[in-house]
Amino acid sequence: MFASTTLAIRYAIFALIATAANILSQDFVVRIYHGPLDIIASVAVGTGVGLVIKYVLDKRYIFGFRARSVGHDTQVFFLYTLMGLLTTVIFWGVELGFEYIFETREMRYLGGIIGLAIGYLMKYRLDRRYVFRPDAG
After folding, report:
1. Cβ distance 116 to 50 under 8 Å?
2. Domains: count for the chain
3. What is the pLDDT of residues 46-86, one digit of tens each?
4. CA distance readout (Å), 123 to 31, 78, 116
5. What is the DSSP letter of 68?
């Protein structure tokens, strides 16, 4: 199998893992919290959980990146998060759009899955170019 195919499969599996963690975290939040902005809170928590999981998997298994120090790792994580802002806007927009249109938890989650898939496709390119550059390690 070509290295690029193996990389794509690995990236897709990690995206599925992060997506599952995101959606499960969201579901957990809406089950335990029923206050104002419950959906926004759940999406924010899910985003944070998915971000950390995806960062750990991407840096090690996709980009083979090793930070020089904790400070360097913190800088790279900050840049990784910054690159994720655009993709997060897309993800949140699709998920909350589905919530607005369909008004069901299941359709909101479907929107989240679709939004995450679009975002992860974009995020790989951003991360490869700006975050995990060969000269960054």
Report:
1. yes
2. 1
3. 999 999 999 999 999 999 999 999 999 999 999 999 999 88
4. 30, 14, 10
5. S
